Amino acid sequence: LEGAETAAQRGAKPWVELCGFGNAHDAQSITAFRVEAEGATAAIEQALTSAEISPEQVGCIVSCASGSRPGDEMEARALHNVFGSRLEQIPVCAPKPAVGEAMGASGAFSALVGAIALRKQLLPPTAGFTASEAKLRLSAGEQRIEGDYALVNAFGCDGNNASVVLRRWSV
Predict the structure, then answer these.
(1) Per the CB 3.0–4.6 Å rule, which of 43, 82, 112, 149 could disulfide with 163?
(2) Interacting residues of 107 by C-beta distance below 8 A, sequence separation 6+
(3) What is the rounded CA–CA span in Å between residue 66 and residue 54?
């Protein structure tokens, strides 16, 4: 992660630009998600606003889903709150089934997944995925991405909710 000037001085070509960030805190305890998803919804909305894009411009989502029923339900609710029926059309992946729960480092891992996915225009599979009741476009196979923006979520059971928007580098 570095500034555009530093990258240019090194002759490096950036993969993505971090162009939006949002965060909200809605703890009810240190071990329980707020399944109403007010904080997660607010974090996503702030990230989109900060990036100056609409939900329709998001080409893929890197979910923080870990297989925790309350956590996954909370994130699905937040995504439905923001994207509505369009959510079923947006490719989604959840890296944690493949790399594990890395706690505070999970957001950084997910951002890397989002950056590589945008660069290749290909979202990786969700390991072990078979079906979802949440109407998310998860897949056990790779998914093509159409668009320049990825939403990356990092939500914790302690009420910390953060989302970033990455834009594919095109200059």
Answers:
(1) 43
(2) 64, 152, 154, 162, 164
(3) 27
- CA 166 → CA 26, 34, 55, 98, 148, distances in Å? 24, 26, 13, 22, 8
| HEC readout, 70-98 | HHHHHHHHHHHHHHHHHHHHCEEECCHHH
What type of residue sits at position 80? H
Answer yes or no: is pLDDT of 131 > 90. Answer: no
How much is the pLDDT for 27? 78
Per-residue pLDDT tens digits for 68-113: 888 899 999 999 999 999 999 999 999 998 888 888 889 999 999 9
